[in-house]
Design goal:
Length: 295
């Protein structure tokens, strides 16, 4: 694995990215969740290598090694990925995103559909402006969506700063929270494999390397108009949601399945927000290795 790569984009911003798996394998771009980073996908390395897959995992603007981007939109992300793919001399590739990575997948499908071999959304966030967007969601996650939607950022910044302070100063407490308060599948995962919790914490700490501004900015994006028409997407999108997920409940998968022209919804029994991608990574990557591009 190579975790500290960078390129300079056309607008002179630096974009950081990591690579996992097999260097000359089938290329798949992975878009991390909110309050995560390029380091959050390190657990995929051995599975990707086994499947002859090359995972490229970029930091979003202001996260980790990537420079902050003023007034960014989700659609801007596709421009960054197109430049990264060009620099790596990759013409066709698959994309997938976890949680807050979902709108970044959609952006790529809208802006460069002819380059996308396959696409998946795992436990993905959805637009905020439809009835029932928070249905079935855990109250603390509902709360941050609500606060992020306020015009003034003071309270959101306080929540984000407290999150960062907790990661740095009381990481053991965060592990205990994972083990005690998450839905049953996630609780089981974090209890049996506490190292997964520590890996998550390290990836999240990296997201704050430049401070909290990028995290605050992204939360504001989640609850704003995404400026994307889902019915303009014709590429098949694989949708993976866990039946016990309270951060991205199954209703979000059903929303995408109704709104997208071509989707395949899988609701996985007894999986949560953290457990699904860990327990089904090989299936997810194998599906992404197939191509929908007609030469």
């Amino acid at each position: 694995m190579q975790t500290d790569n960078t390129i300079t984009l056309a607008d002179e911003r630096v974009l950081g990215y990591a690579e996992y798996g097999k260097p000359n394998g089938f290329p798949i771009f992975y878009f991390h969740g909110g309050q995560e980073s390029r380091l959050s996908s390190g657990f995929m390395d051995s599975t990707a290598a086994k499947l002859s897959i090359r995972i490229i995992a970029p930091d979003r603007p202001g996260v980790g090694l990537s420079d902050f981007q003023e007034n960014r939109t989700f659609l801007n992300w596709a421009t960054d990925i197109e430049q990264l793919a060009d620099r790596l001399q990759i013409e066709h590739f698959s994309v997938f995103g976890l949680s807050g990575g979902a709108p970044h997948v959609l952006a790529c499908l809208i802006r460069m559909p002819n380059r996308i071999a396959n696409a998946s959304i795992i436990s993905g966030a959805t637009p905020y402006n439809y009835k029932g967007s928070l249905k079935g969601m855990w109250i603390p996650v509902k709360l941050i969506h609500w606060v992020a939607s306020w015009k003034k950022d003071k309270q959101l910044k306080k929540i984000i700063q407290n999150d960062f302070d907790g990661l740095v100063n009381k990481p053991e407490k965060r592990i205990k929270q994972f083990q005690n308060y998450l839905p049953k599948p996630d609780k089981k995962l974090m209890t049996e494999h506490p190292e997964y919790g520590w890996e998550f914490i390290e990836g999240s700490k990296e997201s704050y390397k430049q401070g909290i501004d990028a995290i605050v900015q992204e939360w504001k994006l989640y609850v704003s108009d995404w400026q994307m028409e889902l019915d303009a997407i014709h590429t098949q999108v694989n949708l993976w949601y866990g039946s016990s997920d309270k951060m991205a409940p199954i209703f979000r998968g059903q929303y995408y399945n109704n709104e997208l022209q071509n989707s395949n919804l899988k609701i996985i029994p007894d999986e949560g927000h953290f457990s699904l991608i860990r327990n089904h990574l090989e299936e997810i990557l194998s599906e992404l290795k197939t191509t929908n591009i007609i030469e």
